Amino acid sequence: MESVGPSILASLTAVAEQAVTYGQPTLGASTWLDGLGVVVMASLLVVGCALAWAFNWIGLPGNWLAIACMAGYAWLGPEEGRAAIGMPVLVGAFLLALLGEVVEFVAGAAGASRAGASRRATLFSIFGSMGGALLGALIGLPVPVLGPILAAILFGGFGAMGGAVYAEWTDGRPWRETWEIGWAAFLGRTFGTLGKSLFGLLIVVLCLLAVCF
């Protein structure tokens, strides 16, 4: 009987230790954050940057939205390791976005404003390009991947042309001058969007390489 008490006490102690160990969630949470969690965060980052890049097609600051996503990941994500994003990557993405803005500005300067468009025509050109790009993206949906991209860029150019032509024509300008301004708006919008989107694609690629290698 004397050996029964210690044996029962030892059994209860072992059971208690197992229960305490089983009830501790820290190991599982740490493993998730260090492994699967990082993969999920990195995947969401790449998807978010790709979606932000698509905003360039409709005249929105998609490149800067992608940089905001990368900055948020750098702040909340891993500080070191293969999936970490450091300051050099953020600086590189910032420079690419800045170059995209320069290309868009130069293309716009060579567009409607340089052809002699009024401020009203320039404003109508901007809104027309955004509406045309949205319509083009919807029309191009049946063609996977490239359909919405090409249609948004093309229809955005036509929208810019239509807005500029309408504004100048209703102001009483001769048809020939109105057409020249509209054509310049089309070229400025189209090449500006292509250039900006190209640098935005480089930002997405930089993000992908940063979290994968």
Can you offer a commentary on this structure?
With 213 residues, this protein is mainly α. The chain has one domain (48-212). 80% of the residues lie in helices and 0% in strands. It has 8 helices and no strands. Helix 3 runs antiparallel to helix 4 and helix 6 (119-139) runs antiparallel to helix 7 (146-170). Residues 18-32 have low confidence and may be disordered.
Q: What is the topological layout?
A:
Blueprint: H1 4-23, H2 26-34, H3 36-54, H4 62-76, H5 87-109, H6 119-139, H7 146-170, H8 175-212
Short description:
Helix content is 80%, strand content 0%. The chain has 213 residues and is mostly helical.
Order of helices and strands: HHHHHHHH
- Overall pLDDT confidence: 82
- Share of helix among residues? over 70%
Shape by Cα distribution: elongated
Oligomer state of the chains in this structure: single chain
- How far apart the termini lie comes to 66 Å
Structural class: mainly alpha
Number of domains: 1
